[in-house]
Write a structure and sequence with these properties.
By secondary structure, this protein is an alpha/beta fold. The protein has 14 helices and 32 strands.
């Protein structure tokens, strides 16, 4: 077989070539065609020297400012399908992957640019594998500073991965690609982290080492080439990885807008360009393929900035990645994103800054992680007639905390590769560490605190009957401490439950695992029959002793009998085994009324116990979602003016929607 080395070119000596022409005609034709194909195939790939792209983002920063000077939302009016109804009906419930309440981490984003796993395009015997020692060092920085997610680029520019055939179509990829990804995820899992895998970057159309920009453009724009990629590279990888606990999400693109003339005609080094509809179509089709291959996987995309991921015509912004806009171009109902990633650099000024702008569910319809930003103090010089230079400096250490306070869903600082000095690494560490201090425990279904455990069929509460009776029972509500229980999270939604009056812990007597086993209290909670797994079902909860997960905490004849005993019973998912867990608090809310419009208002806000509504009608649907976009309360109103108990909600920021309007609600 003819092997063409990376920088080799084939030259024919005149005399030799004339002798070649005198050879057997058929042999000549076959050989000539083979040589022509090889020359064409390898000739498409860039011969530029490989570059690990240190200071990658800094090199681009100076050319990005022009992107914000255009009112491109106006230009895309003819394809922008977003409207109030579509925004309202978007899949907000998709949200972030379970188990992480706020993304706190760092971009790797590579160890060897485009070469963390792959095959040398000029020498098929040269394989690239991840340097797990260096991956581990980056992960340790995240782990040791309270982070939970690291972002890594997979195909990157397509120079070594995926593998193409002679027709510039992706062919079946080597199995070691999948094994390498799994090794990275295994390493992350061993450190208690998750990885967001970004498939492609805009670099796929640039003049970079080994990149066949023409083949990559076909992959993005021609159905047969997209299909080949999906079937031969994407789906096999997704199926191989499955529900790996080290996987956080699949990200389709890093800043795909950079491949368009609309947003980045001034960006240097591109050999090919595509359009926004091409990008939307590709995201739609690949997201649909991932979701069918692995229904539990979460899918996102890394937008250039707010200008393409927020619906705000006044600023010249539009959401190109909404469900409706993606489906409009690709036609796949399953091709939607679960949450967004939005990038920010100072070229976008305060106008496009999540550090200066609250998350607004009326303008962005899913949870949004800020997927890139510099670990530097944020300030602006005087420019363009705005007043940004007058804004207070935001210190680097406060950037992640600022994102929490403004309602965004996560912080991924840029990056291990770009920021290599000890001082820069320390700034990234500080951001993650300060952010982690403000994040509520990551996987708790209910926060630590003191609560009432109430029946869902009447108003009675569970109480500790005391040392004489030694039993947990139900009684009419009172302010007595024997109805108050302090829960403490032990991890993985396992809790101890301690009575405030007796100081004893809820337990199953003698660790019996059978129906009607007696539930009482004891002086410590050292054994498994004194520890309770709490599961959330909508606004209600279920409790199971961890030594006996086939049984649940049950109210004896709870539907018909008042003041009965509490015991264990086979988990049959009925109302006797559902509990209202309501926080005990003596705090009083300041009445601060928030008005949607001239008709609807809610108060108090912030709220501690009970939320009052004015201007609502019987039959109105009220929904409360947390910062991840997950629904935590859904009720059909029964009266024109109604009060809603919100004691069961943990402290934090929520978004309340009614009559097509949404407001930011603070539970304290």
């Amino acid at each position: 077989m003819l092997i063409i080395q990376p920088t080799s070119y084939i030259f024919f000596h005149t005399k030799a070539f004339m002798e070649y022409l005198q050879q057997d005609s058929m042999k000549k034709i076959i050989t000539f065609v083979f040589l022509t194909i090889c020359l064409h195939t390898y000739g498409q790939r860039s011969q530029k020297s490989w570059n690990n792209h240190i200071n990658y983002k800094q090199d681009l920063a100076k050319v990005r400012q022009k992107s914000l000077r255009k009112n491109l939302a106006k230009r895309f009016e003819n394809i922008n399908q977003n409207n109030a109804t579509n925004m309202k009906n978007a899949r907000r419930m998709a949200g972030l992957p379970a188990g992480i309440s706020f993304v706190n981490g760092m971009n790797l984003a590579w160890i060897n640019f485009g070469r963390d796993t792959g095959v040398d395009p000029f020498n098929s015997n040269q394989y690239y594998h991840p340097n797990l020692q260096k991956f581990g060092a980056a992960m340790d920085l995240v782990k040791n500073n309270g982070g939970n997610v690291i972002r890594w680029w997979y195909h990157t520019n397509g120079s070594t991965n995926p593998v193409f055939d002679g027709n510039q179509k992706v062919k079946t990829n080597p199995g070691f690609f999948h094994q390498d990804v799994k090794k990275i995820l295994d390493l992350a899992q061993s450190k208690g982290l998750k990885v967001q895998i970004c498939l492609w970057s805009f670099d796929m159309l640039k003049d970079q080492w080994g990149v066949d920009a023409a083949a990559n453009k076909k992959l993005l724009t021609q159905k047969s080439h997209t299909d080949a990629y999906i079937n031969n590279a994407l789906i096999p990888l997704v199926q191989f990885i499955g529900n790996h606990p080290g996987l956080y999400a699949w990200e389709i693109f890093n800043e795909p807008e950079g491949m368009t003339n609309d947003y980045a005609s001034h960006w240097p080094g591109f050999k090919e360009r595509v359009t926004m509809p091409d990008i939307q179509r590709f995201i739609n089709r690949t997201a649909g393929a991932i979701r069918r291959a692995q229904p539990n996987a979460k899918i996102t995309n890394g937008a250039l900035g707010m200008l393409t991921n927020v619906e705000d015509a006044a600023k010249g912004f539009w959401n190109a990645y909404s469900d409706t806009n993606l489906k409009q171009q690709g036609g796949d109902n399953q091709g939607y994103l679960d949450f967004y990633n939005i990038h920010y650099y100072a070229w976008a000024r305060s106008k496009g800054s999540p550090f200066h702008t609250d998350y607004n569910p009326n303008k962005i319809d899913k949870a949004a992680v800020i997927g890139e930003y510099y670990p530097d103090n944020l300030s602006f010089g005087q420019q363009g007639g705005d007043n940004d230079h007058k804004l207070a400096i935001i210190k680097a250490q406060d950037l992640g905390v600022q994102l929490i306070d403004r309602g965004w869903a996560g912080s991924l600082v840029w990056s291990w590769t770009d920021r290599s000095t000890p001082g820069e690494k320390n700034r990234m560490a500080t951001i993650m560490r300060e952010t982690s201090k403000r994040i509520k425990p990551t996987n708790q279904v209910i926060a630590n605190g003191t609560y009432y455990f109430g029946s869902v069929t009447n108003n009675q509460r569970m109480y500790d009957a005391g040392n004489t009776v030694k039993r947990a029972k139900m009684a009419n509500p009172s302010n007595h401490n024997n109805q108050k229980w302090t829960i403490t999270h032990l991890g993985n939604n396992v809790y101890t439950i301690k009575n405030k009056a007796t100081g004893e812990f809820l337990e199953v007597s003698n660790a019996i695992c059978k129906d009607r086993a007696r539930v009482s209290t004891w002086k410590h909670a050292n054994a498994d029959h004194m520890k309770w797994k709490i599961e959330k079902h909508g606004n209600l909860y279920e409790l199971k002793p961890i030594y006996c997960l086939t049984r649940a905490l049950d109210r004896d004849f709870g539907n018909t009998t008042r003041s009965g005993n509490v015991h264990l019973y086979k988990d049959v998912n009925n109302q006797n085994q559902r509990w209202k867990i309501t926080k005990v608090s003596n705090a009083r809310s300041t009445v601060n009324e928030i008005t949607f419009d001239q008709v609807v208002s809610v108060y108090p806000n912030p709220v501690s116990h009970e939320l009052h509504l004015k201007g609502v009608q019987i039959g109105d649907e009220l929904v409360i979602r947390d910062q991840l976009g997950q629904e935590v309360y859904h009720v059909t109103l029964q009266t024109k003016g109604q009060s809603l108990p919100v004691d069961h909600l943990a402290e934090g920021v929520y978004f309340l929607s009614v009559k097509g309007k949404t407001l930011r609600l603070i539970k304290k």
